[in-house]
Please model this.
Amino acid sequence: MGGDFAPRAVVQGAWQAAEDGSHILLVGRRERLEREVAKLGALPRRMEIVHADEVVAMDESATAVRKKRQSSVARCAELVRAGEAQAMVSAGHTGAAMVAAKLWIGAIPGVDRPALAATFPNRHGRTVVLDVGANVESRPEHLRQFAVMGHFYAQEVVGTSRPRIGLLSIGEEAGKGTELTREAFQALANTGLNFVGNVEGHDVFSGDADVVVCDGFVGNVLLKAAESMAELIVGMMREELLRDPRTRIGGWLARPAFVNFKRRTDYTEFGAVPLLGVEGGCFIAHGRSNAKAVRSAIRRAEEFCAAELHQKIRAKVAELHAEEARLGAASAAT
Model:
């Protein structure tokens, strides 16, 4: 029920996903959802409506979901926990979705802070950046966990066989940055991952790192700045191409290149970002999501589930903690 264009855009996107072959549980106030479905036709065979009485409004605290157990976002999380759904997708209150996921789906053992992972376009493909907003403040061990989760996401979803992990800082040297980044550098160096050291903001788009790790405050600023810049570039290009007849002709001839550019930078192509570190799929879509974005978000959720990503993250985190315990025991013995 969440999002600027809900429930219309959500129903349309879910309808399209069901037509693609996805099995959809559409969660919200039944009468409103049925009205939207009726505008499109009969309920698709692969779509069911699950009634939820309440909604967590955008102006409410994220923790309101604790009391609103019959809200659509809480019901989604409960369906994942019960095994009736493999993943939840929400375009509504981001904080409420994350709280619901932590409360009812639950964090993977050993993951203290689940993280939001976004993919940014680079010259060669995509760069995974996390955290982009789930944790405003983080500790070095949290960034190490982000690196582990980002590693598997890049492998299984983006298709990078041996992801290069970078730590976002203000310089490439190990001693650069804040106390957090300096300590995180040492923590990441001992993960056994392909850690390439500190990277700077431009490396997110250069393709010199496949996974970039940072705290949620920095990551969220980066994400929103990048989205704004992409929209600015597209808008400026359109203005210049329409300026006079000559540029209009040039723009028409170059139209395939502009279509491809928009596809690489358009958030609706990717739909949603996953909350990594919970025992199931939780995807947060943009509040401005249209039907195409919702359809894409559902596709991302299916890819996540097919890769059994949370199980691989759970195994690697357990391995890291076992290694820490072994080293700690060896150190105490000496």
User: Anything to note?
Assistant: The mean pLDDT is 87.
